[in-house]
Design goal:
By secondary structure, this protein is an alpha/beta fold. The chain contains 16 helices and ten strands.
């Protein structure tokens, strides 16, 4: 492989196998061997030593094994770290060169099993998406024609607004977090602005949905965007630089409590400007979990105990985050906030942490948004099936065709 990648020489067994490929395939092989992945050595080392990194390595090591048919866990981790430190960066060729054993075996049977499992999941997902699209056409034909005289909410509104940054300090939890608050510039104090809260996902921050907050504010809404300190961009950076070992499991409790505390503070300080009695909330990914929790979904510890037994065998990586809550003592209180009256959850993780019993506790209007190409919170497992568990009278499922887990996130501007 090295001779071919660096000198265009086909030698040994590779020369035999090359006869089965055309010239274009061989060019792609060389590109795959030499194309670097931009990753910091310290960052990848810390990730591979984290609980999440170990689970992923365990899965891969069941396919890539040593000559003695043992899992290549340590060999893979060592090779990835050493290869990332080379001058040209982490490439497939460097990775193979750094493997600290004379040879590796590919467990083809296990590999084929995984491929078969993934094909089955993909086929099931495609079938479910087709049914969703079919149902959408049926409902579309049964829905009365829209009133086109109403404003087009896809366009920016004309309401002027101002943005301010608050810092909230919850002394009871010893937790401080910033909030961006968008307020309509309205001299009519008799009418309170309706409030929408936006909760960002893991590794994002309060600027990730600034575009959405500004759009909503232009239509006259007050918008509050908290930044959750235990799961924001800074926390993920700390994870990759070794300053933190993991996303704190307590964050699954603290995030909904952030929303409660935010509403308490807004009610105390802005009650003459904002209606905090009836609040809408939008969230994405971890933020969508937060949305469902404050909307009334209840943590389902028995479901978690059953669903988190074999994480090394799962293809749903969102379970790594859902199951982390088992490392915390069961939360005795309620995460629901009665002031939340409508909710939109985009790419939520919900299947195991809430389950059917937890989700059917939601009684307010709720929309789940799924991306058909979401590999982080898979549409079938985390949105389409959980949608069927909702008992609320007003429930909606939106499907983003071709949408990934990151389709609705704007790049943070700091």
């Amino acid at each position: 492989l090295e001779a071919y990648a660096t000198e265009d020489r086909l030698e040994g067994e590779l020369a035999v196998y090359a006869g089965y490929f055309d010239e274009e395939d061989l060019v792609k092989l060389k590109q795959a061997l030499l194309t670097p992945v931009e990753v910091d050595t310290v960052a990848i080392a810390n990730f591979l030593y984290s609980p999440q990194g170990k689970v992923i390595l365990e899965k891969v090591s069941k396919i890539i094994q040593t000559q003695a048919h043992q899992p290549g866990f340590y060999a893979l981790r060592s090779a990835l770290i050493l290869a990332s430190a080379e001058e040209e960066g982490l490439t497939l060729l460097n990775f193979l060169r750094q493997i600290p054993v004379r040879g590796l075996r590919i467990n083809s049977l296990r590999g084929l099993e995984i491929i078969g499992d993934l094909r089955k999941i993909i086929k099931q997902t495609q079938k479910a998406i087709a049914l969703v699209e079919q149902q959408q056409l049926v409902e579309q034909n049964q829905t009365p024609v829209s009133n086109f005289s109403l404003p087009d909410l896809r366009e920016a509104g004309k309401q002027k607004f101002r943005r301010q940054v608050l810092t909230l300090r919850d002394k009871r939890r010893n937790r401080s977090f910033p909030v961006e608050l968008y307020l309509p510039e309205n001299n009519n104090r008799e009418k309170l602005a309706n409030l929408i809260v936006i909760s960002h996902g893991l590794g994002s921050d309060r600027r990730s949905f600034a575009y959405l907050a500004q759009h909503l504010a232009s239509h006259g809404f007050a918008v509050a965007v908290p930044e959750h300190p235990g799961s924001n961009a800074a926390q993920v950076e700390a994870l990759f630089t070794g300053k933190s070992k993991q996303i704190p499991p307590r964050e699954l409790i603290d995030r909904p409590l952030d929303i409660k505390y935010l509403l308490d503070e807004l009610e105390r300080n802005y009650k003459e400007q904002i209606n905090v009695k009836e609040v809408g909330i939008i969230g994405q990914s971890f933020g969508a979990y937060t949305v469902l929790a404050v909307a009334g979904a209840e943590l389902n510890y028995s479901n978690l105990q059953a669903g988190c037994q074999n994480l090394a065998d799962t293809y749903n990586i969102s379970l790594l985050l859902q199951c982390a809550i088992l490392n915390e003592p069961p939360y005795p209180g309620k995460l629901r906030d009665e002031r939340i009256v409508a909710a939109i959850a985009i790419n939520p993780l919900a299947s195991t942490i809430f389950g059917k019993e937890g989700l059917n506790k939601i009684k307010i209007p709720v929309m789940l948004v799924a991306g058909s190409a979401d590999a982080v919170t898979p549409a079938l497992a985390e949105q389409i099936i959980p949608f069927t568990w909702l008992n609320t009278a007003d429930k909606y499922l939106a499907l983003l065709g071709g949408g990934t887990h990151f389709s609705v996130i704007a790049e943070s501007t700091g």
